[in-house]
Amino acid sequence: MDLYYTALSPPCWSVILLSRQLNFPLNLKSIDTTAGEHKTEHFLKINPTHTLPALAVDEYAISESRAIMIYLIESQTDGNHPLYPKDVKTRGLIHNRLDFDLGTFYKRAIDYCMPLFRIGSLGPEENAAKLDEALGFLEAFLSKTQYVAANHLTIADISLVATVTTLDICYFDRSKYNKVAAWYDTCKKELIGYEDVIADSAAGWRKLFKKPESEAK
Fold first, then answer.
1. Do 137 and 194 meet the contact criterion of CB atoms below 8 Å apart?
2. What pLDDT is stored for residue 216 in this prediction?
3. How far is 16 from 197, CA to CA, in rounded Å?
4. Mean pLDDT, the chain, as a whole number?
5. What are phi and psi of 54, to 5 degrees?
6. What is the distance between the alpha carbons of residues 65 and 94, in angstroms, rounded to a whole number?
7. How many Å apart are CA 44 and CA 149, to the nearest integer?
8. Which residues, in sequence order, are CB contacts of 87 under 8 Å at separation 6+?
9. What's the pLDDT score for residue 132?
10. Phi, psi (5° rounding) for residue 53?
């Protein structure tokens, strides 16, 4: 399986990290978005929306990290893996948390971080407030179960860990969310390959961000 990716992409981290948990190597094909490689004729045939990551298996191709994660785990396991158990209620919560990440949490994280990356200053104050609210939602999820969708690690945790790392890259203060902090630290220790898949890439990402004046010391 060919995975088209960029090392500075949290959604790409999620897919690669899942492959590590499954001990299933992917053929990684790095795409340089600054050079426009995601808009070449070859890549647009694989993914017309020119987003990363994208997975290609012979003539079959799929994009969107959360969809790729589900495809990977269903194609490489017996359909009842602990990271994506067959129990319908657990899967319902996993899908809920993945959708929450995509539509709410990750979106708000990007809305907050991108002005800092592009112009070196924070965007509207409401971006920080919305992101803070999303962290509150995550804290509430973790009041119900040890991990975000169950009392064990699932693919929803992998996706959300990447998003929380995004907050640390752009210096967002999440210190008041104790359950998020404890969960995040647990996941970092439990996830195989966290250091080289996420931590090392995040360090590179962080160098591109200027610390906001409100956080500077």
1. no
2. 43
3. 7
4. 92
5. -140, 140
6. 14
7. 34
8. none
9. 97
10. -80, 165
Of 42-51, 177-186, 194-203, the poorest mean pLDDT is in 194-203
Query: At 217, is the pLDDT very low, low, confident or very high (cuts 50, 70, 90)?
Result: very low
Task: For residue 121, give both structure tokens.
Answer: 């200053």
Answer with the residue of higher pLDDT: 29 or 121. 29
Peptide bond into 53 cis (omega under 30): yes
Q: How many CB atoms lie within 10 A of CB 121?
A: 10
Residues in the chain: 217
- What residues are labeled active site? 9
CA dihedral sign of residues 50, 51, 55, 61: negative
How far does the chain reach from its first CA to its final CA, in angstroms? 46
**Regarding beta strands 60-63 and 2-5, do their DSSP bridges make them parallel or antiparallel, or are they unpaired?**
unpaired
Q: Are 14 and 162 in contact (CB under 8 A)?
A: yes
Over the stretch 29-45, which tens digit does the pLDDT of each residue have? 999 998 999 999 999 99
Edge to edge, what strands does the sheet with 27-30 contain?
27-30, 2-5, 54-57, 60-63
d(CA 28, CA 202): 18
Could you write out the DSSP letters of every residue in 193-205? THIIIIIHHHHHH
What's this model's pTM, rounded to 2 decimal places? Answer: 0.93
**Measured distance CA(126)–CA(135) in Å, rounded:** 14
Answer yes or no: are the C-beta atoms of 70 and 64 closer than 8 Å: no
